[in-house]
Specification:
- The complex is a heterodimer.
- By secondary structure, chain A is mostly helical.
- In chain A, about 50% of the residues are buried.
- Chain B is an alpha+beta fold.
- Chain B folds into 2 domains: about 45 residues; about 150 residues, no CATH class.
- In chain B, strands 1-2-3-6 form a 4-stranded antiparallel beta sheet, with helices on one face. In chain B, strands 5-4-7-8 form a 4-stranded antiparallel beta sheet, with no helix packed on it.
- In chain B, a hairpin with a 4-residue loop joins strand 2 and strand 3.
- The chains are: A mainly alpha, B alpha+beta.
- Chains A and B meet through helix 2, helix 3, helix 4, helix 6 and helix 7 of A and helix 1, helix 3 and helix 4 of B.
Chain lengths: ~190, ~250
């Protein structure tokens, strides 16, 4: 979050208020877009940087994601999921696309070692920190293989076949652990919290 | 290990984590299209996966904010998806930031005409001639549509593709230049890749002096992208390899 942007402070936990803001963004409201940016950019940039690693490329991808939000806000359908999930899906896909396109190939090997344990939080907002604590607690409730499968895919940007190779387990096992792990995570995080 | 022989819904976790390869993702989304319960599950797992981003939240430098807001101010937004795409002149869709001037469309039209002439050298029978005439009429209709727009993209393997598209006609004309030659038994296949599904849109003809004759693709829907993959010469029902080229169409 940048200084001197009172529009979105004190903001609710990311995503909680985004849907009505997105409706305004879809109508071309630039102030609403600035508010969406201030709500969401720390999560977007943090995730992109974690997947992509390279700071300059992470800034680029973050810009692409936020501009995609601006361009496609009218396509957001609240009946198909939360605004936060819509936005983070875009961010994660773009980050993963960047990594798999080979542009970030040089960083790829370096990521494996840090992907699992790298939990550093530099967020300023209390709500985000609380949310991070809850997520971390829920991650800790997974089995080790579930947690490693989920975090290598999500934070590392690896495909499930690559994850199976990294962990030295069968591809089918990894698929199952990813699904079971996310189901447990979902249930731990609770509906609508 | 092909998806079609597996129980597809076990891939819901990998899908929500964007951990599928492109062909697997395309197949899984086809599966989702026909399975409401699977869509529900995939959606709920996406929500859970999205929460993982909270753990690494960190603000970018302020310059990113400045750039994004300035760029947004001069970027046209996409209209909402409507049930009935209007067949009018598309006045509401004009002037996206990349929209090429009409001169560029004219130049592309000229290139396509050159390719047409080259293609015409190989016409022998009257039947093929009348097919070609219908083909040429389809091309002329698209090139002369009031909302005709042009777009190009480079292939990751070298070479490029150029598209002239008309929303009014829900159709586009595609040519390529200098794509790498393929071994015998392989061809480039064209795909329309939409947010919901991917459709086969024909095979590229053999190149002549590095250029392929124009291909007309009908049934273009909002949100579609044009993809090119390398496939067996007979074509595939779904892409079997990562696209060598993706071209974003005007919305």
């Amino acid at each position: 979050m940048t200084e001197g942007q009172p529009a979105a402070r004190p903001g609710p936990a990311p995503g909680r208020d985004l849907a009505p803001l997105l409706a305004r963004v879809a109508r071309g409201d630039q102030a609403a877009f600035a508010a969406v940016y201030d709500h969401a950019v720390a999560q977007v940039f943090g995730l992109v940087r974690r997947v992509v690693r390279d700071p300059a490329q992470s800034e680029e991808v973050t810009q692409e994601v936020m501009l995609e939000v601006w361009r496609t806000a009218s396509r957001f359908d609240p009946h198909r999921g939360s605004a936060a999930a819509w936005l983070m899906t875009m961010a994660h896909r773009r980050a993963v696309d960047r990594v798999r396109s080979g542009l970030a190939a040089a960083q790829r090997e370096a990521r494996a070692a840090v992907a699992v344990t790298d939990y550093d939080v530099v967020a300023e907002e209390v709500e985000t920190r609380l949310d991070a604590q809850r997520v971390r607690r829920c991650l800790d409730s997974l089995t080790e293989l579930q947690r490693e499968s989920v975090t290598l895919a999500y934070y590392g940007g690896y495909t499930y076949r690559e994850v199976a190779g990294l962990l030295g387990v069968a591809v089918g096992t990894v698929k199952t652990r990813m699904r079971d792990g996310l189901i447990r995570l979902r249930d731990c995080l609770g509906e609508g919290s | 290990m092909r998806l079609r022989r597996e129980v597809p819904h076990t891939l819901a976790g990998a899908y929500a984590l964007d951990a599928l390869t492109e062909p697997d993702r395309v197949r899984f989304e086809r599966h989702l299209a026909g399975c409401e319960a699977c869509r529900q599950e995939a959606g709920s797992l996406r929500e859970a996966a999205g929460r993982l981003a909270a753990v690494s939240a960190v603000a970018p430098p302020p310059r990113v904010r400045e750039r994004v807001l300035a760029e947004a101010a001069r970027t046209r937004q996409q209209p909402p998806v409507t049930v009935d795409a209007p067949a009018g002149p598309g006045a509401g869709r004009r002037a996206t930031s990349w929209r090429a001037p009409r001169m560029a469309v004219a130049i592309a039209g000229g290139c396509i005409l050159v390719a047409l002439v080259l293609g015409g050298l190989f016409i022998h029978t009257q039947q093929r001639l009348s097919l070609e005439q219908a083909h040429n009429r389809a091309i002329a209709t698209i090139l002369n549509a009031p909302d005709a727009t042009i777009r190009s993209a480079r292939a990751v393997t070298g070479g490029s593709a150029t598209v002239v598209m008309s929303h009014r006609d829900h159709a586009l004309v595609l040519t390529t230049a200098m794509l790498p030659a393929l071994p015998v038994g392989q061809r480039y296949q064209v795909w329309l890749m939409g947010p919901r599904r991917t459709r086969a849109a024909g095979m590229l003809p053999a190149p002549h002096r590095g250029m392929t004759a124009p291909v007309v693709v009908a049934g273009v829907a909002p949100g579609d992208m044009v993809g090119l993959t390398v496939e067996p010469a007979g074509g595939s029902a779904v892409p079997s390899s990562v696209p060598v080229l993706m071209l974003v169409l005007p919305s």
